[in-house]
Amino acid sequence: MQNLDEYSITDAVLQSQADTPNPRTREIFDGLVTHLHAFAREVSLTEDEWLSAIRFLTAVGHKTDDKRQEFILLSDTLGLSMLVTAMANRKPKECTESTVLGPFFVTDAPAVPNGGDVAQGAPGELCFVSGHVRGLHGEPVAGARMEVWQADEDGLYDVQYENLEAPRARGVLFSEPDGAFRFTSIVPRPYPVPHDGPVGDMLKALGRHAWRPAHLHFMIFAEGYEPLVTHVFRKNDPYLQSDAVFGVRSSLIGDWTTHAHGVAPDGSMHETPFTTFAFDFVLAPVRA
Ligand code: BEZ
Ligand code: FE
After folding, report:
1. Which ligand is nearest to the CA of 192?
2. Which ligand 1 atom sits closest to the C-alpha of 231?
3. How far is the centre of ligand 2, averaged over its atoms, from the C-alpha of 46 (Å)?
4. How many degrees, rounded to 5, is the angle at CA 137 between CA 133 and CA 141?
5. Could you read off the pLDDT of 23-75 as tens digits, one per residue?
6. Domain span(s) for CATH 2.60.130.10 in the chain
7. Which CATH architecture has domain 81-283?
């Protein structure tokens, strides 16, 4: 293995890893080397450009800590997260589509009874959310565990604040025997993904913005069904066509109706505006 040139080096690297004990590891690294080398050849990568890429990845690493995952953000904004999500969640077209998890899910969110308040003081306009969880054949899914989380009207998740004493705008509830669920929360607003780091610089260099259309996250678990990680979007949001992380599916866009005043779905009377939103989720049966 000497005198390798720009043409023979790829085969030499592939040969060097031919004895990789785990076949899947070999498949992944063979693909990685093949495509990385092809990429460098295709764009005629210069030494300066290669060094900038190394500096960029180093900065991504330095920005990452237990609160900020700049590598996942890089994957999200390059569309890789959504590609992997799409490949991992092929399912019948009647089922609710999956989309990216995002970095703001946390375990141990507070339990919320059906009809309860998820917002817990998060700033935003009152919103009544309801719907059903069903299976592929329309059967109600009872006792589905539903994790819900969202940003507030300032575009921030609770975990992005320094000194909050308790979680807010997130909760866990369970569907009723007929599959129904309902809770109050706040109206989601568009927000930019964190862009004060190297990924933000990359977006700027590419002439891209950092915004996500307004959405409400759901993660739903029920026995006998595949877990569903998704979110629902608001019709007419200005960023539906240019989501910074490529997560929008048209089947996940819903109508959020604003009411100037009147009787809300829970029978309460309101003198000030409130919003209602209904959405049904269809779970895929667990794969054999
Ligand atoms: C989110 O929707 O919470 C999110 C997804 C990807 C990157 C940043 C935020
Ligand atoms: Fe989000």
Report:
1. 1
2. 2
3. 37
4. 30
5. 999 999 999 999 999 999 999 999 999 999 999 999 999 999 988 899 999 99
6. 81-283
7. Sandwich (2.60)
